[in-house]
Design goal:
mainly beta; seven-stranded mixed sheet; 53% strand; globular
Length: 115
């Protein structure tokens, strides 16, 4: 079964850093683009970052220059390094993959940026 498990969320002060992890299993991880989404209170779910099977990346304008997505195919894990965090980054962050007409999601991990 396809499984995505996020970890690394928590409470951090403005200007701080956090690294999220998404452990993937049940599919050929190497062959797929992986995505990070987030959903803030009262907001639509937003695509934050994408990393392709060849490790090319794309970012939402709101996080460009602050966040870095990466992957370790040997560990079947995708990461989101978040620096210079702002209160508006507060959200539940989700790992996502699309295959065979389906969308697969992790359970989400809460990131709260507050002093």
């Amino acid at each position: 079964q396809v499984q995505l498990v996020e970890s690394g969320g928590g409470l951090v002060q403005p200007g701080g850093s956090l690294r999220l992890s998404c452990a993937a299993s049940g599919f050929g991880f190497r062959s797929y683009s992986m995505n990070w989404y987030r959903q803030a209170p009262g907001k639509e779910r937003e695509l934050v970052a994408v990393i392709s099977s060849s490790s090319s990346t794309n970012y939402a304008d709101s996080v460009k220059g602050r966040f870095t997505i990466s992957r370790d195919n040997a560990k079947r894990t995708v990461y989101l390094q978040m620096n210079s965090l702002k209160p508006e980054d507060t959200a539940v962050y989700y790992c996502n993959v699309r295959m065979r007409g389906y969308e697969y999601w992790g359970q989400g991990t809460q990131v709260t940026v507050s002093s």
